[in-house]
Amino acid sequence: MQIDIFTQVIVPVVGGLGIFMLGLEFMSNGIQNLAVNKMRALLAKIAGTPVKGVMAGTFITGTSSPEPTRSRTSRSPAWASR
User: Fold this and answer.
1) Per-residue pLDDT tens for 54-75?
2) Is 47 exposed, middle or buried (CB count within 10 Å of its CB: 0-12, 13-18, 19+)?
3) Per-domain residue ranges for the chain?
């Protein structure tokens, strides 16, 4: 029994990977479209007016900023270590 590697192994594997990649692309596009619509609705609800928009932007920026760190060169005053 002779196995033709190209037609019985390589072609089905490459074809299966191609179909899999196409499915991933379709799923990715669908999820992005769903997320965009929900995000727009959420932003419209939260920041419906300019005042609400400024408040929401300030809150989001304040909660997403990293904590400030002290540099290694700054030292505490001598009286603080006692």
Assistant:
1) 888 888 788 766 665 555 555 6
2) middle
3) 8-59
